[in-house]
Amino acid sequence: MKRERSILFHIAWLAPALFLCIVGAASLGSAHLSFFDSLRIIGSGIPGLHSIVSTDGIADVYTKIVWQVRMPRILLAGLVGCGLSVVGATFQGLFRNSLADPHILGISSGAAVGATIAIISGVSFHFLGLSGICAAAFAGAVVTAFLVYRISSIGSKLPVMNILLTGIAVSAMFSALISLLMTLNRDQIDKVYMWTLGSFSSASKTRVLFLLFFVVAATAGLMLYARKLNVIATGDETAESLGIDTSRVKKVLIVLASLLVAACVSVSGIIGFVGLIIPHCTRIISGPKHERLLPLSCFAGAIFMILCDTLARTLAAPSEIPVGVITSVFGAPFFIFLLQRSKKKLVR
Amino acid sequence: MGVTANRDRPHESADDRTLRIHNLSWTPEKTRAPILDQVTCSFENGFFYGIIGPNGSGKTSLIRHILRFLDVQQGTVTLDGKNIEEYRRVDLAREIAFVPQNTQIEVPFSVYDIVMMGRTPYQNRFGGTSETDRDAVQYAMDLTDCAYLKDQEFTLLSGGEAQRVIAARAIAQDTPWLILDEPISNLDIRHQLGIMDTLKMLNKTRGRTIISVLHDVNLASAYCDRLILMKDGRIFAEGPTGDTLTLDNLRSVYGMEFSVILHPETGKKYFVPNQFA
Description:
Chain A has 348 residues and is mostly helical. Chain A has helices spanning 7-27, 35-45, 60-94, 107-120, 132-152, 160-184, 189-197, 205-224, 226-232, 236-241, 246-268, 274-286, 290-314, 323-341, 343-346; strands at residues 126-127, 130-131. In chain A, β1 (126-127) and β2 (130-131) form a beta hairpin. By secondary structure, chain B is α/β, with parallel strands linked by helices. The termini of chain B are far apart.
């Protein structure tokens, strides 16, 4: 095993890469903009750089397109990618299962039920500036997380297998419920189906801020437990004999991760694969330690999701491909490629 | 090594630190017969204890209660006069280190990372690893002969190497009490004796109290000061090794006849099952 590089080394190249992705993504779309112009527009919008970077010679309309249309969507995609990847990494460590992903506890299906009910009942209320569908999805996710948690805990313990199986059962039940709701409301099938596939087309500044809060708060919270998560990943009893209150730490981690999934899914629908593969890909550079894996997954997830969403909105323009399709169509072969290349590191 | 100076307790001056088990009974759900049946025994600071007995006699269940992996149903377990249920986990982890029977870990941490995890009870969430942590890890790896494995992935180790690394983790934990559940079952004969010698050394020169479940009666006889013989969830006999390890006791506990032979060079007693001879 070669000596691991400092995490700052990786952030030093991932952060600029993320920035370039954002600039590139902002230049692409029906109104075409050169990469350099996009860079100037974004640069001039960053506090402190305003006086250095000028947007002379770029029509105002482009600045508006970049900042008001494209950036909310790009940032939302980045935040969702970040959130789902961090949760995926956390769950894989916590459940000691390489197949764990953010949707494994049924939270996302719960969100879908909430969204479906909101769609077919045609609600038009707004809550804290979020649409009714978004708010209903968030509520559905949180209620489901609570439900799964309550069902699977035995006394003060939370056996891993219990929570995984409960999550799968609840997931299956809710999927069936959604199918039932769709068949009873055939006129809304399209809308419900498209919601579940996931999309960033309804991105807004409010949604970005809403999700930003959850991503920052939950990731910071999870990072506080990163070292304990390392020990828990080697076994519950080992962790206990090393002084960790395993039940309590598990609860805290599951609550934080569940809230983050709920927030991600409520603003974007159910986007699969990201939360599963990004942590695995990230481990190639970060190694298994969570204090390295979690922050680096943030960057990798954000970059991957922004690339996918950019493809989703430009490949078949003016119509859109669901971003969940892109994550799987491009992500799966890439993942298989990595799997082949570094079998030793991915498969234990 | 000055690493552990504050914890060094000379073997002779064992203060009144005792681990007491009183009337401990345990019947798991869906089982009728108790696994532990009114177990009462005590472990005094400074000795090397062996727990022996046939499979299913309750050895592992007993230590799982001491480590608080299982909630006490009936009876009490006290350390230094304080009920172990009143300890915070982290405080208990500064008192007792554990080497489990099953050393499987699926995450590809390096050997060094695994041994460093032994320092968890002393680390806070923001600080990195201290000089003391690194010294304790190096010391533990030297003692268990696994320093050369330092950068290897734990998942790729052989069973015996893994067991030594886990023993190193417990030694790095630097606790007055060290509990081991068949710590040498996967080791070759040289490393078996190596680990037992290390434990003996920790016991003699650093005053660590060792409590180890053992399957090999002769190793127990050679290394332990005191033995606890278990049978059917009860303590069958306890006391100094010479008094407890008798042909009568062995016959009763294992249900088979043993003979004693003397080692031609050292003159030490060896217990050999008659079926075997």
